[in-house]
Every structure is written in C-alpha cells, then in structure tokens.
Design brief:
By secondary structure, the chain is an all-alpha fold. It is 85% helix and 0% strand. It has a single domain, classed as Four Helix Bundle (Hemerythrin (Met), subunit A) (Up-down Bundle). It has four helices and no strands. The model has no long low-confidence stretch (mean pLDDT 94). This is Hemerythrin-like domain-containing protein.
Amino acid sequence: MTPSTCLTRLDEHQATILGILQRGERLLKAPERDAPALARARWELARALLAYQGFKHRELFDPVAASGCPRRAPVARRLKGECEAVGESFRAYVAKWSAVSVLDCWAEYQPAALRLIAQVRDHLARERRETAALLTA
C-alpha cells in the first residue's frame, strides 16, 4: 500500500470517528438528555475506534516497525503504544459508563464524556500529523 493510500484510508477512518464525536457532543449539550442515544453513540464509537486501531496496526505501524529502519521503526512503535494507551483509556471509560445510568450521574458523566471527546480529537490530530511524517520520511 502506498503512503498516499494509507493516508487516505487513515483520513476515512478519522472522518468516521470525528462524525461520531460531533454527534455525541451535540447529544451531551442538548437540553434533553437521551441516554439510549448516548449509549448507541458510545458503542458506535467503540466499533469505529477498534476498526481504526486494527487498520493502523496492521497496515501502518507494524510494517514500519518491522522494517527495521532506524529512523522510522522507533516512531512506529511509539505511535502504536500511544494508540494502545488511548484505546485502553476508552475501554475503561466504556466499562465505567456502561454499568450505570448516566442520567443518574449526569454531573460527573457529561464533563467526563466531553473530556474524552477532546482527548480523542487531540489524539487523532496529533496522530495524523505524525503518521504523515512517518510515511513520507
């Protein structure tokens, strides 16, 4: 797969995730609290993030790390580690908020969900820049 094709696919995954985040943010800021819609968005995001992680590891980070290139391989391993850390943070978030009624914990849930959205957005932006540099180095 060419670097251009990889970046195009990365952008497609990210666009899907960013769309879900935008919908989730609207739900969190809406005057009416819709717990079922929030749960659906949470699970939709989980599926999209898992697909994105699988793509990045299989198609980007693992092949570059395996290449042994002294400049690129360590960067690929670092990016993969950061991806895994964000994934673990998201899994902990899903486990916590899937086990309770978010409406009963709204004062804690809403800011936590908004922080998670910001964290994922920041990660995606940083990862896009660094992956582009990795693939074009």
